[in-house]
Amino acid sequence: MKRLFVILIASILPLVLAPTAQAKGPVKNIEVCGDGGCATIPVTPGRGVGRPDGILLLMGTPATQVPGPRPYVDLNVTLGLGEGTMSMFYVPGVQVVLSDRWSQVPPDLGAKLDAAAARVGTRKPTIAVVTVGERTSRDPGAYAPLLGSLEPAPAPDPFDARRVGIRFTTTEPTPWTPRGDGYASYVPSAHLIGIGLDWFRPMAALDAQLDIDSGAERSAPAVASDGLSPWWLALPAAGAMAGLLVVLLRRRRAHPRTVPVA
Q1: What confidence tier does 50 reach under pLDDT thresholds 50, 70, 90?
Q2: Domain identity same for 136 and 195
Q3: Which pLDDT score is estimated for 243?
Q4: What is the extent of the structural domain holding 41?
C-alpha cells in the first residue's frame, strides 16, 4: 500500500509542478507583431522581466476581467536559459496577455507594449465563415459585431426558448478564437445572442441577417434532387386507377345486369 501511494504521488507531482516550472525564467526578448510588421522591446538582464523570475511579471497575475473582442497584437516572448519562445496575444489599452489563460501586465511593461503596438499597428479579428444551424450564411460580414461591440441584455424569458447555434470562423486565430472557431447562440423569439454566459441584443442589421439565416433553415422548401417536376409522382397512381376501371368494365360486360319483367 505504501509503495502504491508513493507511485501515485510520483505520477501526479509532475502534473502539478509543470505549469509552475514552465512559468519560471527570465525574459530575453519580446517581439510585438501587428498588421504593419514587428517591433522589439529591449529587455535589460536582471531588471524587470529580465530577472530570473521575469516571466511571472508578464503572465503571473490572473486578469480580473476578460476583455471583449477588440484590436490586438501577437507577442513572441523569448526566454533565457535556452527555454525557447512562447507565443501569446496582447490586448493594448487593457494591458492583458493570453497564453494558456488571461493575465494582467504591470503598468510600466504595459505602457511599453502599448507603444510598440501603436507603432506596428494592431490586428482586428475578422469573420470569414458563419454557419447558423446547419446553413452557411451568404453574408458573413454582417456578423462582424460578434467580434466587436454588442449591447448587453438580460437572459431570454423563458430561458429554455428555442435556440439556433452559431459557429463562426475567423481568418486567423485571435484571443477570442484561439483555434480559429467561435460559438454563439441565437434566440429568435427574443432576438438575443448568447456568448458564453452572457446575453446581448444585436443591432438591427445583424438581427435582420439572423432572422434570414435562422428562418431559412425552418422554411426551406424541399426540391427534388434530379430537377424533375413533382407531377411525375402521380403517374403510378393514375395507371393503377385506369387498370381498375378497365377490370370493372370487363366484368360488367361479361355479367350484364338482368332486369325482372313484371
Answers
A1: confident
A2: yes
A3: 52
A4: 22-120
Q: Cα separations (Å) of 177 from 70, 103, 164, 181?
A: 12, 17, 20, 5
State yes or no: pLDDT of 10 exceeds 80: no
Assess whether pLDDT exceeds 70 at residue 23. no
Lowest mean pLDDT among 53-62, 128-137, 166-175: 53-62
- Give residues with Cβ within 8 angstroms of 110, minimum separation 6: 95
**Residue 141 CB contacts under 8 Å (≥ 6 apart), including other chains:** 127
d(CA 196, CA 59): 24
Angle at 139 between CA 134 and CA 141, to 5 degrees: 115
Q: Compute the distance between CA of residue 127 and CA of residue 135 in angstroms, rounded to an integer.
A: 16
* Count: domains in the chain: 2
Cα-only R_g, the chain: 33
Does the pLDDT of residue 57 top 50, yes or no? yes
- Same domain assignment for residues 26 and 50: yes
Average pLDDT over residues 76-92: 88
Residue 155 is given by DSSP the state P
**200 confidence band (pLDDT: 50, 70, 90):** very high
Q: CA–CA separation, 141 vs 63, rounded Å?
A: 31
In a domain, 247, yes or no: no
Q: How far apart are CA 207 and CA 192, in angstroms?
A: 9
CB 193 within 8 A of CB 199: yes
Residues 115, 108 contacting (CB under 8 angstroms): no
CA distances from 173 to 34, 73, 126, 127, 260 (A): 13, 11, 10, 11, 95
Model confidence, pTM? 0.67
- The residues facing 8 across adjacent strands are none
Task: Return all residues near 105 (Cβ < 8 A) that are at least 6 apart.
Answer: 57, 58, 61, 90, 95, 96, 97, 113
